[in-house]
Design a protein that fits this description.
This protein is mainly α. The chain has 8 helices and no strands. The longest helix has 48 residues, at 146-193. It is elongated. The two termini are 25 Å apart.
């Protein structure tokens, strides 16, 4: 079963996913497989009481299995946060301008005086000065809806940094798949351990 789950996640990885991810996923599901075997051995040991079995299984979990899972999960989460930050940097660079602040404020005042439909049309019309003025300050200063402002800012960023955004998208999708796979593998460990979810969370936190 771990091998089948691994193959499904590997199939879902983007073509240009970071090379190490496939190996990390293989490691995660290999941990599950080895733990499953070890847990069965412990449960079949006639010298162990029920309490002894629980203690032995928890010891196997905390001696490396859970710690490794946490390390992989944190790696994926941190890379996703890095990509989100990089998107923000690219947007900031895309919206940067050298126009006088007073002129930008004047244009935004003009926009606020328009009916909302006309306001949005003016920003979407392609007039670079109006668009720059609207996007160089928070949406409310131009009287624009937040979602419209964000979509317009994203479009400008895409136009200027399309290739970089494509690379970020591949990395984000790759680490999102890795995050999902490690979460599933960790849940498999919990089921195989027989530990209740609340107690397992405490064990995982301490690992």
């Amino acid at each position: 079963m771990p091998a089948l789950k691994l193959s499904r996640f590997l199939e879902r990885l983007p073509k240009n996913a970071p090379a190490h991810i496939s190996g990390d996923l293989a490691t995660a599901f290999e941990i599950v497989g080895k733990f499953t075997v070890r847990a069965k051995e412990i449960r079949s040991d006639p010298t162990l009481s029920r309490a002894g079995v629980a203690i032995a299984i928890e010891k196997v979990l905390t001696s490396g299995a859970l710690g490794h899972m946490k390390q992989l999960q944190n790696q994926a989460q941190n890379r996703l946060l890095d990509m989100k930050a990089q998107r923000g940097v690219l947007r900031e660079r895309a919206l940067k301008h050298d126009h006088a602040p007073e002129l930008m404020a004047e244009i935004r005042g003009y926009l606020r005086g328009l009916p909302q439909a006309d306001r949005m049309k003016a920003v979407a019309s392609g007039d670079p000065m109006i668009k720059v003025a609207a996007l160089s300050a928070p949406a409310f200063l131009s009287g624009l809806p937040d979602d419209f402002w964000a979509a317009t800012a994203d479009a400008v960023t895409q136009e200027k940094f399309g290739q970089a955004l494509e690379e970020i998208d591949v990395i984000e999708r790759s680490y999102a798949e890795m995050h999902s796979a490690i979460s599933l593998a960790t849940d498999d460990l919990r089921r195989e351990s027989g530990i209740e979810p609340g107690d397992f969370a405490k064990v995982a936190e301490a690992a």
